[in-house]
Backbone:
């Protein structure tokens, strides 16, 4: 696998066939490309072929070579490997309220993310302190006995 891009040139295309490329211009970009390397036997029969490049067409160009009244065209396909396409892709959502509510304005899954900022979590480790969240009625934190109340009303024993 490589991130290298490549170009494929198809030369000797007659003017009668160039419309095939021009008519499909909306379909050429994004098309899948596979390049194989083949090995021939002593009898000039293709015996083995190995996949060397897999990617998509990102752009194309057409050049004309005119000799007297005969037109020959060369089509050049610029191709990016799937690896480079995936490396440059940006996808997913951020873990903040605005990103989640962009798709669903009633989604409240990330509303408390900012209140957790600055805390360190040792996932998979037995907790060293007990924490409780204060009840909605205010006053002392529920469930604790003799502990100290820390920031944001969290009781620590």
Residues:
């Amino acid at each position: 696998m490589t991130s290298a891009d490549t170009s494929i040139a198809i030369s000797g295309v007659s003017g009668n066939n160039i419309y095939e490329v021009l008519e499909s211009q909306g379909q050429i970009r994004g098309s899948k490309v596979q390049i194989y390397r083949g090995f021939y036997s002593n009898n000039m029969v293709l015996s083995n072929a190995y996949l060397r490049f897999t990617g998509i067409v990102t752009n194309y160009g057409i050049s004309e070579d005119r000799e007297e009244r005969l037109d020959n065209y060369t089509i050049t396909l610029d191709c990016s490997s799937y690896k480079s396409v995936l490396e440059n892709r940006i996808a997913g959502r951020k873990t903040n309220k605005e990103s989640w509510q962009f798709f669903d304005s009633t989604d409240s899954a990330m509303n408390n993310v900012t209140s957790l900022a600055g805390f360190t979590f040792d996932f998979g480790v037995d907790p060293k302190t007990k924490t409780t969240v204060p009840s909605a009625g205010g006053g002392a934190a529920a469930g604790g006995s003799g502990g100290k109340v820390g920031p944001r009303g969290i009781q620590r024993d």
In short: The first strand starts at residue 6 and ends at 14. Confidence is low (pLDDT under 50) at residues 138-145. The CA atoms of residues 128 and 157 lie 9 Å apart.
